[in-house]
Amino acid sequence: MNVDGDQTDEVAAYPMVACLGYAIVAHMATEDDFDRFRQGFQHLSGRTFFAEGRVPRFEIDGFALLGVSLGIERADVPLLERDWIVDLLEKSATAVPRSDWEHGLVKAAQAVLGIVDWATIPDALCRVAVKTALSVETDPDEMQLSWASAVGLIGEKTQPKRAAGRAIFDSCMGALSRLPIHGAGLPELITLLDEVRDAMSHWTYETKTRVKSVVPQQWEVDHEYHVQNLLWTLLRPVFRDLVDEQSLPKVGHTTPRYDLGIPSLRTIIEVKFMRRAGSAECRKITQEIAADRSLYLGNRTGYDKLIAFIWDDCRQTEEYATLSQGLEGLEGIEKVIILPRPSRMDRSKIPE
Predict the structure, then answer these.
(1) Which of 126, 177, 293, 335 is 20 to 30 A from 16 via CA?
(2) What superkingdom heads the lineage (predicted)?
(3) Confidence label for 338 from pLDDT (cuts 50, 70 and 90)
(4) 84 with 188, same domain?
């Protein structure tokens, strides 16, 4: 980021420092920018503000005060070096009219530095925009209020307000496009597992060179542990309490050990790998899952639901209906999901 200005002149210096602060919080700053921000901040710290007989500039420029405060927080300026701006912001908060947008920016600057609570920022648009920039969790009701304010900014010419409105718009659109992670339950879990088949269209299984001088790669799935790893990668970002390979209370001489579990949903995901075609293999898988169900589910284990995820290496799709219907008729088995080995993962096409 390039910002022109003579640091020996206050009027040129404070806009530059503020711009650098915004660049830092937006992850657009270089190491040199960080150094320039710290130098500019030190220069400002030596100035006298609200001096008698001088027109206030930086002191009542809420947008600049917020930019500098954001930079302080992200550039790790030591606490002992912040005292002067803490005092300045307290004076600025009383000097700026409370009904003005600038007052909200000053309160936001104070909130960024932990001087006041976020709730003291009167304008929801300003409050949520700054919290979003800092990745601070926002209450859904707050987001709704800020969205209503952003919608009302159509035709707004003030750049800071337009920037805040754009931040709210982007944040809301991002939230709408994501799975509601904190509210994900059994239906969402089943949906995710059901969609693995389509997602495998982007699985790396190259039959020819795509990047010059790089050998084609095949991410092979050879056994059930590979399938478990695939499901772990898919589910862990959504279900934070996902666990794997956990032992359950002993039953006689047997210590049951399930593949994947989500304690909050009281659900186990058991992975099977069918290597051979034919009804004998299907019977074997059916018997194994039925046995797992009797060992894994119940009050003593903390689990009462089971999802069977089966990788079919032979693509015997004609057997799927019988296999699924038989197992899903057993109490506790919520879903049987069978993933045939994708046709694009044809071992015969692997280059020599």
Answers:
(1) 126
(2) Bacteria
(3) very high
(4) no
